[in-house]
Amino acid sequence: MADNSANHEIRPFRIEIPQARLDDLHTRLDLTRWPDELPGVGWEYGTPLSYVRDLAAYWRSGYDWRKHEAALNEIPQYVTEIDGTGVHFLHVRSPEPDALPLLLTHGWPGSVVEFLDVIGPLSDPRAHGGDPADAFHLVIPSLPGFGFSGPTRERGWNVARIARAWAELMRRLGYERYGAQGGDWGAVISPELGRVAPDAVVGVHVNAASAGFTPFGPLSAEDAAALSDRERERLAQQQFGRDQLGYAAIQSTRPQTLAYGLTDSPAGQLAWIIEKFHEWTNPSVELPEDAVDRDRLLTNVMLYWLTGTAGSAARLYYESASTWGGPPRRSEVPTGVANFAADRAVRVIAERSNSVVHWAEFDRGGHFAALEAPDLLTGDVREFFRPLR
Predict the structure, then answer these.
(1) Cβ-count burial of 314 within 10 angstroms (0-12 exposed, 13-18 middle, 19+ buried)?
(2) Catalytic site residue 106?
(3) CB 341 within 8 A of CB 363
(4) Average pLDDT for residues 101-111, to the nearest whole number?
(5) Which among 317, 343, 358, 380 is annotated as catalytic?
(6) Is 88 left (phi over 0), alpha (psi -120 to 50) or beta?
(7) Is 353 left (phi over 0), alpha (psi -120 to 50) or beta?
């Protein structure tokens, strides 16, 4: 990693969005040029016009960014430069001196906002009805190119490079022994961190797992025979079809073209992200805000909009596309998997490249577990790391 030691400084960070930026957002929402829509198609063609208009109206007149900005600023935040790019992260030290450091990694279209409801219970279980022996010191970075870690300024920020940056971040913070947890891209980066720094990472816990945990393409007869009834049912119900992979096809091939619309139109950015919250939250809920608080949804969108990072976040797909579907190098780091209602990890696949020692299945929650079922995720993270401390 070609870092100059002069750039290793860790600086406190505070979110202070100029009022002019908020006024610009409101003006753009007021002047939105809305598309037409076929009658009666619901979500089949994408995010429905009526739903986006309603949510955009609330964003314009009911949502209070300053309230959520102040809440975010109550959490200690920092920035540092790693491998030529700025990295923003939350760093919450537990009051328990023997707490285990834990690095939490979000995915797309998420952000550090995903973890707000688990910070207290994980870092200070004593204050949340838990056992103080389960406490963690938390490091929660924004992925390079996302939010206040963006935009990136050069190509090559793929999963392996991010994992190396995370190892450097933890070294820089003085953590020689720590755990890793993540969902979506975080469930790809966290296992890779275990491969990059196996002597430091005591365990890897994932949810919303994909590469290395789920089948790419048809299963062999042998693998199909090894499926549990639950896995077989899940794959039959939730296997991604062509219609659900359009976002990835675009972001992995033409992220720059996509960026013009999403960076110029808040309604476009909102619709692009909210569609995934509709498709990936617990299948039993009708609307995204039935699974995740509406203000929390919009705060997450705001971290993309205010930083203008829709395009640089999408570039993670472009940079990583060449490795999709390939088997990861095997990791001997103890690994735990939590499958929530919308997750598709299959144990026989996961065990090929991961040392799986813990497997949990939940009927509640979904792809965004830290937002949808923070209590279940907290409990499973505690349980998995308990014997690894």
Answers:
(1) buried
(2) no
(3) yes
(4) 98
(5) 317
(6) beta
(7) alpha
At 156 the three-state DSSP class reads coil
Annotated active-site residue in 83, 117, 367, 380: 367
Angle at 86 between CA 63 and CA 302, to 5 degrees: 10
Q: Which residues, 6+ apart, have CB-to-CB distance to 139 below 8 Å?
A: 89, 90, 91, 101, 102, 103, 104, 169, 170, 173, 175, 178
Helical H runs in 153-199?
Answer: 159-172, 186-196
Cα separation, 355 vs 340, whole angstroms = 20
3-state secondary structure of 273: helix
Output 26 or 245, whichever has higher pLDDT.
26
* pLDDT at residue 102 in the model: 98
pLDDT in tens, 313-345: 999 999 999 877 677 899 999 999 999 987 889
Mean pLDDT calculated for residue range 70-94: 98
Q: Looking at residues 217-243, what average pLDDT do you find?
A: 74
DSSP notation for 116-143: HHHHHHHH-GGGGTS-GGG-EEEEEEPP
How far is it, in rounded angstroms, from Cα 143 to Cα 131? 31
Structure tokens at 21: 């930026």
| pLDDT (tens digit per residue) in 185-203 | 999 999 999 999 999 999 9
215 CB contacts (<8 Å, ≥6 apart)?
A: 223, 235, 346, 349
Reply yes or no on whether 243 is catalytic. Answer: no
Q: What is the dihedral of CA 190, 70, 266, 310, to 10 degrees?
A: -30
Report the length, in residues, of the chain.
Answer: 389
Q: Residues 349-388: pLDDT tens digits?
A: 999 999 999 999 999 999 999 999 999 999 999 999 999 9
Q: Is 317 a catalytic residue?
A: yes
Report the alpha-carbon distance of residue 265 to residue 31 in Å, rounded. 10
Burial of 183-219, coded b for 16+ CB within 10 Å and e otherwise, reads bbbbbbbbbbbbbbbeebbbbbbbbbbbbbbbbeeeb
**What number of H helices and E strands is found in the chain?**
17, 9
How far, in Å, CA of 263 to CA of 276, rounded? 18
